[in-house]
Amino acid sequence: MHSFGYRANALLTFAVTILALICAIASFSDTLSTPTPTSNVQVLNINRFQKKPDGDDEVSLTFNISANLQSLFTWNTKQVFVFLAAEYETPKNSLNQVSLWDGIIPSKEHADFWIHTTNKYRFIDQGSNLRGRNFNLTLHWHVMPKTGKMFADKIVMTGYRLPQAYR
Amino acid sequence: MGFTGDTAASFKSIPTRQSFTQAITLGLIVTSALIIWKALMCITGSESPVVVVLSESMEPAFQRGDILFLSMSEEPIRAGEIVVFKVKGRPIPIVHRVIKVHERQDGGEECVVTKGDNNREDDRVLYPPGQLWLRRNDIMGRAAGFLPYVGWVTIIMTEKPVIKYILIGALGFLVITSKGEENESILQVNFPSQF
């Protein structure tokens, strides 16, 4: 009843239980904060807008993203993964989401940023529906905790439009 | 008492009852673990509620050895979600992020493309030849939460199976050779609800 093995086993079980409890509380503390992020995207130029040989439209664009995501960081945050997606509807598809750019914000200091870039991933449609198309640019973020539940949310920015003709 | 009584008395002195008790408690441990696993499968709705991260393709978010808790709901798949999927011909599930979604108008099929955060290219090179998109039934679950480092036990046991056999052998040896009462105390500490 009081052998070394028995005590070691009891200690280990207790330690693991307490550790799991602490992780759960840490994760719960994330739900208590209310973030207030802001963002703004300007499309500077449509560099290329063509129909590919296989029939799908492709766009290449240059844009400015400025955002302040500092309020998303808590003490339990490891990093925030942020990406910008173009979202639009076509006659065939009720929703299309194409990620144009993504980045990793490792800490709160880097969360207030401004970048000027072309799209990191190819903006290709399923089909040829992009001429004159209205689309939203949505900034999505995914908060990865040091332990526990992950949170994701987004800001939708509307009012962008592709040109009527290829160029 | 007579002859029958004497035989019955000597029969009881052999520790068969003790061995049976030990075998039953061992079986109880194994079945409890199985019940918990199956219950998790029901609660999360995914056929594999916990997975271990095996590659560095999602660093720095998920390191090798982290475990991910999955869930699966009927909600449509959206860009940004971290999903776990299996590709035909590869037995190991892959945990990557959805970067493209095209959902059909009739509220039906979605075609998605995934990519690991730390990879240069998207996952089309991993899909079987001729397959450009992943569908809903390729996806086993969405990552909902994670615990760091805990998965190393599984990785070590998979990559060096010797350790798995040693561990199981040692546990079995301990259970069988230790005295029955000590066993029950150990089980009382670990599974208080059953006593």
Task: Please provide a written account of the structure.
The complex is a heterodimer of chains A (167) and B (195). Chain A is of the alpha+beta class. Chain A has two domains: 1-32; 35-161, Sandwich (Immunoglobulin-like), CATH 2.60.40. Chain A is 16% helix and 51% strand. In chain A, the strands form two sheets. In chain A, strands 1, 2, 5 and 6 form a four-stranded antiparallel sheet that branches. Chain A is elongated. Chain B is built from five helices and six strands, in the order ααββββββααα. Among the domains of chain B are: 11-44; 73-143, SH3 type barrels, CATH 2.30.30. The two termini of chain B are 36 Å apart. The mean pLDDT of chain B is 79. With 195 residues, chain B is an alpha+beta fold. Chain B is elongated. The longest helix of chain B has 29 residues, at 16-44. A six-stranded antiparallel sheet of chain B has the order 1-2-6-3-4-5. In chain B, α2 (16-44) runs parallel beside α5. Chains A and B meet through α1, β3, β4, β7 and β8 of A and β4, β6 and α5 of B.
Overall outline of chain B: elongated
- Specify the number of helices of chain A: 1
- Which pair of protein chains has the largest interface, and what are the residue counts? A-B, 38 and 32 residues
The helix fraction of chain B, in percent, is: 25-40%
Write the layout of secondary structure elements.
The complex is a heterodimer of chains A (167) and B (195).
Chain A: H1 4-30, E1 38-51, E2 57-68, E3 77-88, E4 93-105, E5 112-118, E6 123-124, E7 134-145, E8 148-149, E9 151-161
Antiparallel strand pairs in A: 1-2, 2-5, 2-6, 3-4, 3-7, 7-9
Chain B: H1 2-13, H2 16-44, E1 50-52, E2 67-71, E3 82-85, E4 94-104, E5 110-115, E6 139-147, H3 152-159, H4 161-177, H5 180-190
Antiparallel strand pairs in B: 1-2, 2-6, 3-4, 3-6, 4-5
Membrane topology (chain A): Single-pass type II membrane protein
InterPro entries (chain A): SPC3
Protein name (chain A): Signal peptidase complex subunit 3
